[in-house]
Design a protein that fits this description.
This is Roadblock/LAMTOR2 domain-containing protein. The protein contains three helices and five strands; from the N terminus they run H-E-E-H-E-E-E-H. The chain is of the alpha+beta class. The protein has a single domain, classed as Dynein light chain 2a, cytoplasmic (Beta-Lactamase).
Length: 122
């Protein structure tokens, strides 16, 4: 699974992908792939834990369960997907094609599906 994860992610480095990871709600990294252009401290564990809280609050809007959150900053965009018990984090250049990374996130959701199912069964 790790080699397929790296393969899916690394082909998007040219498109502006800097970092992708699968973490649990506490920020513990299960899988990760980082571009050589990414800063060392780009992905902090607090990002996943903050997302978990934000996702919980967004789901209270009465619109159903929240599946993803996209945040765009001056230099970066962060796209996060929830697939309980895991969070998929994608960090890319702010000027990159967001739709491309949403598609990558959906591919990563499919890739991690067996892992999610095995965790839910326990």
């Amino acid at each position: 699974m790790e080699s397929r994860f790296n393969e899916l992610c690394s082909k998007h480095f040219f498109d502006g992908l800097l970092f992708a990871s699968v973490t649990d709600r506490d920020g513990v990294v299960v899988l990760k792939c980082k571009s050589d252009n990414a800063k060392e401290d780009l992905m902090e564990p607090i990002l996943s834990t903050t997302f978990a809280v934000t996702n919980n609050q967004a789901s209270k809007l009465g619109l159903g369960n929240n599946k993803s959150i996209i945040s765009v900053y001056d230099l970066y965009q962060i796209i996060q997907f929830i697939d309980t018990p895991f969070i998929i984090n994608i960090i890319a250049d702010a000027s990159s094609n967001t739709g491309l990374f949403i598609n990558l996130g959906n591919n990563l959701l499919e890739l991690t599906k067996p892992l999610v199912e095995s965790m839910i069964e326990k």
